Amino acid sequence: MPQAFQPEVLTFLATRRSASALTLTAPGPDAAEIDVLMRLACRAPDHGKLTPWRMIVLESAAKTEFAARLEALALGREDAKAAAKLAKLKVPPMGVAVVARPQLSEIPEWEQLLSAAVVCTNLLYGATAMGYGANWITDWYAYDPDALKILGLEAGERVAGYILMGSPGEAPLERVRPDPQTLVSRWRA
Predict the structure, then answer these.
(1) How far apart are CA 82 and CA 139, in angstroms?
(2) How distant, in Å, are the alpha carbons of 7, 126, 139 from that of 13?
(3) Which residues, in sequence order, are bridge partners of residue 55?
(4) Distance (Å, rounded) from C-alpha 100 to C-alpha 160?
(5) Number of H-type helices and E-type strands within the chain
(6) HSE on the CB side for 128, CA within 13 Å?
(7) At what angle do helices 109-129 and 7-15 cross, to 10 degrees?
(8) Are 155 and 104 in contact (CB under 8 A)?
(9) CB of 142 within 8 A of CB of 159?
């Protein structure tokens, strides 16, 4: 495919911000838009063509049930703090759990995990480019073995992130960004 200068993409990247998950309201992406987002997500770099990830769409009643089961898990442990952290999952109208599933391969596991992270980035950027608010989160339920069972993960799988989406209830705030001059060096022989 020929490549062309796309200044609008550069502007998008320079101004992109994550929306607070707690401010995301309905509507979220519809079925056709979700299909587009899934195709965009699958364009992640994938050394060895292993597809070391998969996606679980969380929407409507199924998302509500998933959050309720996580809440029951937290409250069963008498962990009100963990239950309260579920608000970021409950409020947005939809989300996608990106699951890293490294394959046995000569491709290092680290590269495969990075590929799953790019799937998260593609979903985040794609939803934002569609005009939705989006936020990439992880919390206790991205790491807790019992929560992962509720999500339906198999042995060796991990949550790379939950990408939560909806209509932004307020403009995302800008935050302090790092100064590239303090982070970039040039290797010299």
Answers:
(1) 9
(2) 10, 11, 26
(3) 98
(4) 6
(5) 7, 5
(6) 24
(7) 100
(8) no
(9) yes
Instruction: Name residue 101's amino acid.
Output: R
The Cα–Cα gap between 174 and 172 comes to 7
This prediction has a pTM of: 0.94
Token readout for 64 is: 């509500």
Residue 27: is the preceding peptide bond cis (ω within 30°)? yes
Q: What is the pLDDT of residues 94-151, one digit of tens each?
A: 999 999 999 999 999 999 999 999 999 999 999 999 999 999 999 999 999 999 999 9
Q: What are the b/e assignments for 9-36, b being 16+ CB within 10 Å?
A: eeeeeeeeebbbbebbeeebbeeebbee
